[in-house]
Write a structure and sequence with these properties.
It is globular, with a radius of gyration of 20 Å. The longest helix has 15 residues. The protein has 6 helices and 10 strands; from the N terminus they run E-E-H-H-E-E-H-H-E-H-E-H-E-E-E-E. It starts with a strand and ends in a 15-residue tail after the last strand. Strand 3 and strand 4 form a beta hairpin. The protein is of the alpha+beta class.
């Protein structure tokens, strides 16, 4: 990918490369401070790699990174419908072939009935962090990164994007809390800030549960030292 957004002349949105890692981390520290690693969304990113083709950076004419956005594969927890079905399952019910202990494979209706529930969220992404160099905040770089990231996620066939952020800002890109009421992050967060954008209409219908990491695991060579 190598797309130029005309709103930010002299800046280019490109796919992040391995050599960009240290500059990206330095930018995130400047833009978000040391507390960024304690956010709930970090639990879904830790030890994982961004979704294939969905780590983007903005570079100025000298090649310096002035913005970054990454999207991560996530899975949804048990849906409200599945939760109701689990609650109604007869007490003591076990799956075929066990010796009296409930089967882990039958812990949810989707597994018990041999299918994969669409509410598991296949094709769902978590966006973040989105950051821009503090000295470039008014240049439109954040908006350019968002538009490019959403377009690329849709092109790659993903179904929905989730994020935790300000509805006033992200609403301009189509994000809202309309379908996130039954979803939750795996840690402290402000519920009204969990937003979603469906890339495929109806992709999040009936979705619920706690988000879980589902992306590619990072190998030791790609992990940066964690700040103290």
């Amino acid at each position: 990918m190598n797309a130029v957004d005309t709103d930010i002349l002299n800046y280019t949105i490109v796919a992040e490369q391995a050599v960009d890692a240290l500059a990206r981390e330095a930018l995130l520290d400047r833009a978000m401070g040391p507390g960024r690693r304690r956010k709930s969304s970090e639990k879904l990113r830790r030890g994982r790699r961004p979704s294939q083709g969905l780590a983007l950076v903005a570079k100025d004419e000298r090649g310096r990174i002035v913005g970054t956005v990454r999207l991560w594969d996530v899975a949804l927890g048990i849906s409200p419908l599945e939760g109701e079905m689990v609650a109604k399952r007869p007490e003591g019910a076990i799956s075929e072939g066990t010796a009296g202990a409930p089967s882990a494979a039958a812990a949810t209706p989707a597994a018990a009935f041999g299918g994969t529930s669409p509410s598991r969220g296949e094709g769902v992404l978590l966006l973040g962090p989105l950051a821009v160099d503090p000295s470039m905040k008014a240049a439109g770089i954040g908006s350019a990164l968002m538009r490019n990231a959403i377009a690329e996620a849709k092109r790659l066939g993903h179904k929905a994007v989730l994020l935790v952020g300000d509805a006033l800002y992200y609403g301009r890109f189509g994000f809202s809390a309309e379908k996130t009421g039954s979803l939750a992050m795996p840690g402290p967060y402000e519920k009204h800030r969990l937003l979603a954008l469906e890339l495929v209409p109806g992709a999040l219908d009936g979705a619920g549960g706690v988000l879980r990491p589902a992306g590619r695991k990072a190998n030791a060579a790609t992990r940066l030292p964690r700040a103290a």
